[in-house]
Amino acid sequence: MNAVQILALCRREGLSLSACAVKLESEQSGASPESIRARFSRMLDTMESAARDAREAPVRSVSGLTGGDAYLYEKYRRGGSSLLGETVSLAVACALSCSEVNASMGRIVACPTAGSCGIVPAAVMAAAASRGLGREALVDALLCAGLVGQIIGEHACLAGAQGGCQAECGSASAMAAAAVAEMLGGTPEQSFDAAAMAIKNVLGLVCDPVGGLVEIPCIKRNAGGVVNALTAADMALAGIKSHIPFDDTVEALNRVGKQLPASLRETAAGGLAVTPAGLRLTEKINGPDARPEKRS
Fold first, then answer.
1. What is the DSSP letter of 2?
2. How many CB atoms lie within 10 A of CB 140?
3. I want to staple 216 with a disulfide (CB 3.0 to 4.6 A). Which of 16, 40, 101, 210 is the partner?
4. How far apart are CA 73 and CA 68, in angstroms?
5. Computed over its alpha carbons, how large is the radius of gyration of the chain?
């Protein structure tokens, strides 16, 4: 199904996107609505741990390249120095934490991928904290995000190796934007407007991991992605519409992803990965033979 069909179903049956997600999943899998919500609640448990752990104590990645930034940023924002305000700074801290937990081989939810795992949890947790929303609202938000991600996966792609980072952090931003819009009282139409604007903001974003690892620049892109998501949700809730509808943005994402050269689709053969600093870091972890020109 696409967004047009989902919206028609929501209007016909008076459903939110999260309720629509439960209905479709129950019909397709045979699982009860209660068991579906329970599964998403368990995912939320894991997300909450990942969003917290690296803020409370520094963690280091297996490669040694990254770690400690979530802890550093948490101290900074709690000290009142952040320019971003409580909600957005909390979202940035949570996104960094999830991504660092992933890089340190901790337990995360790939949402929709490991490389973009921090965006959806950080966005919905920060939004819930800002408005005093409870667990059921968070579960609803994840269901809404999942439905949006399913549409993107069916009509475009979610993997950086296939469509660049626009397919990973872009999709996650869209999922998060739609979820936050619903959490804060938005209509299904506003959720899809938010998702469309989030994709438009990062259309063409390349996947260029240094050393082929999901660390640099991936971790900080999660922080940028959650700010993008909250911005898009805020615009949609203000009544701003996307002139390009969601289904069209997904089609564009798919087309742009296919046009990206292989060097910019998770091969570590372009972009930041082949800058002087990127090559030095690659040699540090993998040795001189790991340089792209040595592998070709």
1. -
2. 23
3. 210
4. 9
5. 19
CA distance 204 to 206: 6
pLDDT in tens, 30-88: 999 999 999 999 999 999 999 999 999 999 999 999 999 999 999 999 999 999 999 99
What's the burial of 40, exposed, middle or buried (CB within 10 Å: 0-12/13-18/19+)? Answer: buried
Q: Which of 254, 226, 269 is nearest to 124 (CA)?
A: 226
Six token digits for residue 104: 């340190």
Q: What is the separation of C-alpha 116 from the centre of its chain, rounded to a whole number of angstroms?
A: 5
Write out the two tokens for 233: 């949700």
Does this model's pTM top 0.90?
A: yes
* Contact present, 3 and 156 (Cβ < 8 Å): no
Neighbours of 29 (CB within 10 A): 10
Average pLDDT over every residue of 198-219: 98
Matching residue, tokens 């939810």: 109
Q: What does pLDDT average to over the chain?
A: 96
